[in-house]
Design goal:
Two copies of one chain form a homodimer.
Chain A (H helix, E strand, L loop, with lengths): L1 H4 L5 H10 L5 E7 L3 E6 L10 E5 L5 E5 L3 E9 L19 E7 L5 E4 L4 E4 L3 H7 L8 E6 L10 H17 L5 E5 L4 H11 E2 L5 E4 L12 H12 L8 E6 L6 E6 L3 E3 L8 E3 L6 E4 L2 E4 L18 E2 L7 E5 L6 H9 L4 E6 L10 H9 L3 E6 L12 H8 L2 E3 L5 H14 L3 H8 L17
Parallel strand pairs in A: 6-9, 6-10, 10-12, 12-13, 20-21, 21-22, 22-23
Antiparallel strand pairs in A: 1-2, 1-5, 2-3, 3-4, 7-8, 11-19, 13-14, 14-17, 15-16, 17-18
Chain lengths: 448, 448
């Protein structure tokens, strides 16, 4: 069976494997022009890039190599650990709430094979249950993979795809809640995009991810997914976009973050995600959901609360995010003007300032009807262009101070507003308003 | 006396004040095309921009207005609080260590006048002592103002000016230590620039600033300056570039940070400065300096320790810092290539990744001999381009992963290396080495 020997491979990689007489679980040495690597051929997700073959290295990491780069390949041995996902039929319990899981490239769940160290994403409910049978006790789960790419490549087109799927779920199904699994690198941007694009969703929308690939003993994928499904299936859950990730480095609790005030603050730690400038919505400890009392700091604009559910799927992609640094030249801004951009978010210094040598170019951008807003690269605290004369000059040049919106959230919000509103005045007015908890009245005192 | 009536004003503003019949401490209403403001005319630092007049607003903030923008001006009244800096001659105590204070635009110290709420920077030792007489007990202080601009405008030219002054102090004086006062917005960049440019300074170089202007009751300027002078005057102090700022929101202690691992993490709080990914060097509590034990995490490269003091004053200004965001276009990079840049620092996602659509342009930049390094926009944690295939592609395109150097520090380090070394291989080799504590062996576990 091709499925067994070449699990997940197709097209050129399938041909290549056959030609080389190799199959899944063979240990090989691959020589490329610049390096050589040894590892075990892993099964591969059928939706992944067809030019790559996955190897499990002895370090425990997986790596992909492009068959076009291979100068030589040599079979070293074969792992005895026979890998098979036991396609266990676990009876869905009809009484449980329905929770679809949408895969956006992050590993939803993996089955570990300790003999090879190999891992396969579990994508069907059966595979999922065989990895994490506990989840079957929480909800009737149905999984679908929307796309499978590294999260640094996720952008507006993918947001639209997710929104379309959510729209379809709203129209055709009646889930209790939904869970999206997503790579962590740009998870916060996607969370902001869904937060602004979906007003009053009829169910909770939970985004989760994993900082450690699920074949490492320290993996957080089960803990995060379990708590996300638990939350999505709960009638207590808030009907809005939230991010649920490890609260601490240990498996004690998960934090429930609002989608607009979150940031990945560590490149590898499991508790990398933090709500900045406010309290998280709550936490899940030992299967118990609790909400924070300080929630008023993060309230969603009241006037939106009575509106019906609405999904927009438009973003203006001609928006840039410029991080200010000493010596930054006006030419950086000129690029955006000349390329026909409609909006620019500055991550300014301190209260949102930028070097005064940029002011003439900012004026030019403003004359070109480019909306320019400023945030603080400090991440914590508010912008304020009225405090110093230099800030007032920026205001005069047309820069809009957007309080304590995070730079990344401001970027997504501006793309959303420019995609959905025509009048500059309206866009500026809405940039300065708290629509989805992205601007807080005051920041809770917290260590940072 | 002109000094009394028009204290600090000269040139066009002096003429304007005389023509309008106005003088310092008059309360006026100024009407401009876009706004009108009311406030009290403040004395002004003679080195400040000659086109501006300073007003104290009723909010307690100072503001400057350009006389060219004034449509109408109206005198409302006059503050009775007579302001005068008492030019007290305080005998310098010859037995105390000599500590020059170099002003770089931040307020060194100010004298409060509670009747007007007005403030004047105290720039001479006499003025300084009259504001903060306690400092005379710590050191023989001598002050000089190197420049007086908003810190968002401080860049490489100013670093050279500071370095030249420090070089002269080394050659001509024998200070126990020196203190620089600096606006907080770009203080971390300047600290990094001095750290890399000065190897084995013969005395401690302390940079400090203030988050709240000194005419506000919550001002931190005295506390920070006092502790900075105390440290600079102490034989216990480390002979390297440090930043000394409030540790907490209250006046309990100051933190001693190494100049290469610091970041302003809050736009307004007094404890805004944090050592990222490591322990600070130490703290000062109740006049006592204590150093952290975890200092090994932040050690300066050993091989430099035996070298004589060396100051370089060269930076390559054609260096850019690009913050990655979803949807970023290759054109952003093209700008830097076309403008003849020599180096680019990426603030990549997670482990230092960027969207794969940038890779062809990164290759082109690499072919143009532009040094491209990547850091993590998470700020905490390490980069790693060997973990995922996408990272390996970046490496192949020529991107250098620089571990856990902060993006801002990497930017300054690259400008420093490109200014002082010719060979690309050497520059890349040094970018990956820990020269001044900017790369730590591992990050101390800390909350963030």
């Amino acid at each position: 069976m091709a499925e067994e020997k070449y699990a997940g491979y197709r097209g050129s990689t399938l041909d290549w494997l056959k030609k080389q007489g190799l199959e899944v679980w063979d240990e090989i040495e691959v020589t490329k022009a610049d390096s050589s690597i040894k590892g075990v051929i892993l099964p591969r997700n059928e939706l992944a890039d067809p030019n790559f073959i996955s190897l499990k290295l002895s370090t425990g990491y997986n790596i992909g190599f492009n068959i076009e780069d291979v100068l030589r390949v040599r079979k070293i041995g074969r792992f005895q650990g026979k890998y098979r996902i036991p396609k266990v039929e676990i009876a869905q319990k009809p009484a449980l709430p329905f929770v679809p899981i949408l895969g956006c490239g992050g590993t939803i769940a993996s089955r570990l094979d300790y003999q090879t160290g190999g891992t396969i994403p579990a994508l069907t409910p059966e595979e999922l249950f065989s990895s994490f049978p506990e989840i079957a006790e929480l909800a009737r789960v149905e999984t679908s993979l929307l796309f499978d790419i590294f999260s640094e490549n996720i952008s507006f087109g993918h947001y639209v795809k997710i929104l379309t799927e959510i729209e379809s779920l709203i129209q055709n199904d009646a889930p209790q809640g939904i869970v999206l699994t997503h790579g962590t690198d740009t998870l916060a941007f996607t969370a902001a995009a869904l937060s602004f694009s979906i007003t009053n969703p009829p169910f909770p929308i939970v985004i989760t991810g994993s900082q450690r690939s699920s074949d490492r003993p320290s993996s957080d994928s089960f803990f995060n997914l379990y708590n996300s499904v638990l939350y999505a299936a709960s009638p207590k859950a808030k009907k809005e976009v939230v991010v649920i990730m490890h609260e601490k480095s240990s498996d004690t609790s998960c934090t429930i973050h609002r989608g607009t005030r979150i940031r990945k603050m560590h490149s590898s730690r499991r508790d990398a995600f933090k709500t900045i400038g406010g309290s998280p919505l709550g936490r899940i400890t030992e299967r118990k959901i609790s909400f924070a009392k300080e929630e008023e700091n993060l309230s969603i604009e009241v006037e939106l609360k009575d509106k019906p559910c609405q999904i927009t799927k438009k973003f203006e992609e001609k928006v840039g995010l410029i991080y200010h640094y000493p010596g930054i030249q006006p030419g950086v801004l000129d690029y955006y003007i000349e390329a026909g951009y409609k909006g620019i978010v500055l991550a300014g210094t301190g209260l949102g300032h930028v070097s005064s040598n940029l002011i003439p170019t900012i004026k030019k951008a403003n004359e070109n009807e480019i909306v320019i807003v400023t945030t603080t690269q400090c991440l914590h605290g508010f912008t304020g262009l009225s405090v110093y004369e230099s800030g007032r000059q920026l205001q005069k040049a047309g820069v809009v101070s957007v309080f304590n919106i995070l730079p990344e959230t401001a970027y997504i919000k501006l793309a959303y507003l420019l995609g959905n509103y025509r009048k500059t005045e309206k866009i500026i007015e809405l940039m300065k308003q708290n629509l989805k908890g992205e601007i807080t009245i005051r920041e809770k005192f917290q260590e940072f």
